[in-house]
Amino acid sequence: MTLSSEAYRALEDVVGPENISEEPAILDGYCFIWANEVHFGDKFSARPPAVVLPGNTKEVQGIVKVCNRFNIKYRAHASGWEVPAISAKEPFLPVDLRRMNRILEIDRKNKFAVVEPYVSVQFLLTETIKQGLRPASVGCGPSASIIASSTSHFGCGTSNVSTDYGGRTPLGIEWVLPDGNILRVGSLGTDSGWFSGDGPGPSLRGIMRGLSGPNGGLGIITRTAVKLTPWYGPASIKARGKPNLYDYDVPENLRVYQLIFQSREHMTDSLMSIVEEGIAHGLQRCGVAVSVMLVTESNDEFWDTVKDSPPEMAEMYKFAASFMVDAASPGELKYREQLVEKLLDKYEVMSFPMDDKMMGALFYNLVTGQGTQRIFRVSGSFLSAVGAQEAWDTMGHISRRCAEEIWAKYEAAGKIGLAGESPWGTALGDWGSHVESVCVYDQLDPESVQATRDVIAEVDELLPKWSLGMGSFEGCLSPAEAAQKKAAPYCLDFMSYEKKVKKLFDPNLVSESTWYVTPDK
User: Fold this and answer.
1) Are residues 174 and 270 in the same domain?
2) Residues of the domain holding 406
């Protein structure tokens, strides 16, 4: 794909010559992202024809109109964290939103913040806790865009149990449609402010993002109001030490627990009770080994810490979760602590003993999701071999069947490592849970990469047969491809409706949709 000189000049007229480039050295910076080799067979994606950096909604609209005029496929990204941000089957024009990086408003009374796309979860958290509020965290870590996670791609995180699922947090939304028109969703559409994402009239949030988001395949979100939740900790979180291993003090009105369960069913019942009581600030299913990884500086240090552990200990700690309670007052904290103790006694849950270092690391991870990314340290790359969102007991069935019928044979071959019966998971507000079994592979070993592809393909085929959903909604493959290949016989024909939506909103099919849906010719 190349841009004509006329198209380049048209884009340059929109953003100015300093905010567009076709220099190869710059373009190559948009060609690498983890896991590209699994999806597209190469460590680097195709070089784009140019890159453009708009600074406001008007410039975004101008870019989109130029793309429609010259039939240029484009896709926007903010932090660019995951594969759907900058990878595709064919080259496209990246619309890099890094200049749109402002928090426009924090409404303390009505508990929302208005942000642009490049505002990260950490930036917003740092500013809102000064006013006793916090945004939803996301599992991919604090550097991720808050708009991307709330409007365009999932939104699962450690704090969802108290802030709700990221997809439920957007309120007023400013949306540059794929054809260049601007749509303001919710109360913003009647100039009534940013407070509601639904109405007046029918809500369009289901079309805007649905459960998992269009991954850039349905235009560009330029401003969003996101819901905020009370924060009972200090106005700033102090870190000590140096990267990549900081120490944190747990605030006096928060309590952190590492829970150990006797079985999968026991874990499901216990976690459901915690969610029902509404006492959790953060909740994350993960093995104790993940907690150890948070407080070790390297793979060697981690291995030195765990290598002499007896096998029965690993079996004992297979079903575990980290859990944090917060409270607005000392009296409320005392009540919640007593309730936690009653729940642990009722369900015979063991609380793993922790020193201050591990407790501080768990605290910060449950607030920000920062520690999740230590998984990169193991081999340099990973993918979620299964990602699903459903009821707690369904998540238990998914992790059990995948471990018993898929993971075991691949782990035995020694080409990849899988989380097995200790996947990452979290509560999604009051309606269910999210689970991922992490597949760690060597990105420089073709056999390891191929084994990862094989695992993903097998998950895509078996989950629908087991009536446990679709396995590719966490970015392993496009949902359209997964449905066409494996899931269509077992699911309602929802994909045909998504294709109709895509064609209606994007008649020229220029909003690049490798990770969304593409209508049939």
Assistant:
1) no
2) 380-478
